[in-house]
Amino acid sequence: MALAVAAPFAWAQVSETTTTTTTTEGSGTITEFSPGSTIVLKESAGPKHYRFGKTVTYVTRSGKVLDEATVKTKIRVGVPVRVHYAGEGDSMLVDRVILDED
Q1: Which phi and psi (to 5°) does residue 16 adopt?
Q2: Which residues pair with 33 in a beta bridge?
């Protein structure tokens, strides 16, 4: 009887799915900026479009987090920044914008 109960589990297959998320950075000068939506950077290879993730942190080069009022005055067209993002192609979601100053 015990064998009849254990038998189905002995031949069951286990399946695993692995998802890999690539995180990287891009850098350039802001050419377009829509807060909460998108940012376009003029990079060495040409313009690159990024979308914002659900939460985005704005920081200085030294890591100081910027408040909302500072973001409104400092993050604008013509300012050099780096963006930290996850994904590839059309799904590059920014989670951190690094202002190239302290």
Answers
A1: -120, 145
A2: 39
